[in-house]
Amino acid sequence: MLHPDLLSKYDKLKSILREMESVAIGFSGGIDSTLLVRVATEVLGDNALAVIGRSATYPTREFEEAVQLARSFGSRYRVVNTEETDNLKFRENPPDRCYFCKSELFGKLNVLADEEGVRWVADGTITDDLGDFRPGMRAKSEQRVRSPLLEAGLSKDDVRTIARELGITTWDKPSFACLSSRFPYGTGITKENLMKIDEAESFMRDLGFRFFRVRHHDERTVRLEIGSQEFHRLFDNGLRGEIVEQFKKLGFIYVTLDLQGYRSGSMNEVLAADSKEAYLKGT
Predict the structure, then answer these.
(1) Sign of CA dihedral 81, 87, 93, 99
(2) Is the pLDDT of residue 102 over 50?
(3) In whole angstroms, what is the distance from residue 69 CA to residue 72 CA?
(4) Phi, psi for 78 (deg, rounded to 5)
(5) pLDDT at 176
(6) Is there a contact between 24 and 109 (Cβ–Cβ < 8 Å)?
(7) 132-136: long-range pairs with CB below 8 Å, 24+
(8) Beta strands in the chain (DSSP E)
(9) Alpha carbon distance 23, 134 (integer Å)
(10) Domains of the chain (ranges plus CATH)?
(11) Residue 24 pairs with which residues in a beta bridge?
């Protein structure tokens, strides 16, 4: 059973969704938007629409899992193609790259919501996101987008606890970000290189790894981040050679291991605090 404080937040989430009456939810398959879709479907039925974006920046496995989850919940869903890679500013990969990606996504969501006669567009933003470097939040503020989980005061731990209580099988799924986050800022993003990283990370998943990132540093060099809890597998299970061989097949010459291990947003480590603030404000 949920703790009374968390139960109160959960009830508030359901109340917010009832008040919204109908909603189109940007559904990535991550645990935050997964919980939102699950609860919205329960509260609103067919008035809840899960919208799954498909693009070169979205990992193939994540797309497939999002579709499976929507079907398992009995949720009404639609797939939309997003073309952020057609945007020159996005391809240049500035630190506020996510702003251009989210602008594209939210724009498509609003068009779809109008077509479907849906009152609101929503995303899976939670309280934890407020303390992170997320330029995409600026795009949300410019468009008609609400964040029911955030309005209900839910954190990542809250989301996982509720998801587990509801029997959502992916309640402990590691966080992920779109494939463009695998490239250092200022390094141009191409569909070809996005496909390489998608293939590399799919291979890592097939080997059973859960906490990792494959970072593309140039045409020859890839940097592999592995979670501390899985670090030993690179050697104990003799997987190192398989990984090197596969990555070389993808065209990389140097396959490097980051001794600091996996951490979300490591590409942001090069940004100074003042420059982060400027990009968040769009100045």
Answers:
(1) negative
(2) yes
(3) 5
(4) -135, 150
(5) 82
(6) yes
(7) 132/265, 133/265, 133/268, 133/271, 133/276, 133/279, 133/280, 134/98, 134/280, 135/95, 135/96, 135/97, 135/98, 135/99, 135/279, 135/280, 135/282, 136/98, 136/99, 136/101, 136/102
(8) 23-26, 48-54, 76-81, 120-122, 145-146, 212-216, 221-226, 254-257
(9) 23
(10) 4-165 (3.40.50.620), 179-263 (3.30.300)
(11) 49, 121
Smallest CA-to-CA distance from 99 within 137, 130, 126, 129 is with 137
Q: pLDDT tens-digit profile of 46-59?
A: 999 999 999 999 99
Q: Are 197 and 216 in contact (CB under 8 A)?
A: yes
In the numeric block, which tokens belong to residue 261?
């291990």
Written as six digits, the tokens of 168 are 């959502």
**76-81 and 48-54 as β-strands: parallel, antiparallel, unpaired?**
parallel
In the chain, the largest separation of any two C-alpha atoms, in whole Å, equals 55
Q: For 50-92, what is each residue's pLDDT tens digit?
A: 999 999 999 999 999 999 999 999 999 999 999 999 998 989 9
Number of residues in the chain: 283
Kindly tell me if the per-residue pLDDT of 134 is higher than 90. Answer: no
Give residue 275's pLDDT: 53
CA distance 181 to 150: 23
**163 or 275: which carries more pLDDT confidence?**
163
Judge whether residue 212 has pLDDT over 70: yes
Q: Is 221 helix (H, G, I), strand (E, B) or coil?
A: strand
Angle between helical axes of 60-73 and 31-44 (0-180°, round to 10): 20
* Chain position carrying tokens 């603030």: 277
